[in-house]
Design brief:
Blueprint lengths: L16 H14 L6 E13 L2 E9 L6 E9 L1 H15 L8 E11 L3 E10 H21 L17 E6 L4 H11 L8 E6 L7 H13 L7 E6 L13 H8 L5 E5 L14 E3 L2 H96 L1 H6 L4 E4 L2 E2 L11 E5 L4 E5 L7
Parallel strand pairs: 3-5, 6-7, 6-8, 8-9, 9-10
Antiparallel strand pairs: 1-2, 1-4, 2-3, 4-5, 11-12, 11-13, 13-14
Helix pairs in contact: 2-3, 4-7, 5-6
Length: 426
Amino acid sequence: MSVAISSMPDMNRPLSLLQLNNRISSAIVADSGLRDVWVTAETGDLRVSGGHCYLELIEKDPDTGRPVARLRAVIWASAFARISAEFVASTGQRLVSDIRIMACVNVNFHPVFGLSAVITAVNPEFTCGDLLRRRRLMIERLTAEGIIDMNRTLTWPDVPWRVAVISAKGAAGYGDFITHLYNNPSRLRFHTRLFPAVLQGESAPRSIISALDRIAADDEDFDCVVIIRGGGATGDLASFDDYDLAANVAQFPVPVIVGIGHERDVTILDYVAAVRVKTPTAAAEWLIGKLDAALAKVRDLASEIFRAATSRVSGGLQQLAYCQGLLPSLVLGRVQRSLEALNSSVPDALVHLVGDILRRRRDRLDSAAQLLDALSPQSVLRRGYAICRVDGHAVADASLLTPGAIVTTTLARGSFEARVISDNKQ
């Protein structure tokens, strides 16, 4: 069996790999369609070294999110400073991984490093539109799920003094917040507890969610949560435009205050948190204002109670003074009327009363006299009895008489004497 190889390239003159790559490079350079081409892609693995920016341009399947195309890219230092400044000024954030950009590229092929793209310009308006589009989609999703207003509609305690703070440990923003909170002019007392978290970069959303989970385990110990981050590059806030983080804040069981970035900076958290302020110091000022309002309300109530009590006491004192002034005349009048009543009624009543007493006493004396009369010896004698006396002593027992004794007998009328002749003793 013979093999025809006449139509194949000449194996006697093969190309080296370098020659082939040079041909590819020359072909790419010669193709005007690969120069100054505007492409859209998502950034990945972005890093800055020596003033140059190295990154990957990635295209993902919209349904699966899996990469379908990749291309290494570079922005040389000569252009990166200009492109970066323009991008930050327009979008409010730095060029970072995981954002969509529109870039003007020149395609190159290096014999050693292979295919790559040199980025000469970036259209920041495209990224702004994409960021707004992504944020709008997150808002629409949170709204459709019915959770976007959950934290914003929570009822605030009258005195939110127990504060859970999510911040980077040792951060200047955290120090400003604590200093301002505890050195308030009204000397209001707060209780704070720090839950450290990363607030910058790709790991920030997961770190903040973890801190929220720790707070939720003791949510009854806190009146609110404060998520604060001090000043810095606006681009560092891109990590806060995260759906999972927004959903956690929206559904958190106690009110959340967000104080990250600057006044003009906006993230998805500003749409779901109960309160949005511009700085950590502003978050402290908001809490102080809340307690100042509660304190003012207590003072108003105390003043109202004092005024009511003072009015009541003053009225009582006036009434007491009036009574004190009126009392002497009332007593004198009452005494005078009593005397007049006594003068008008006592004489007649006294005469009748004394007469009744005298009659009762006379009747009693009459009864006693009649009783004494009935019991007197004279009354007994009138009934036929006699009294016998010997030597002036009454004799009631005949055995006591001796012969020859003189007995004086007293009758009702008169008396006589007799001598005892003999006794009749038995």
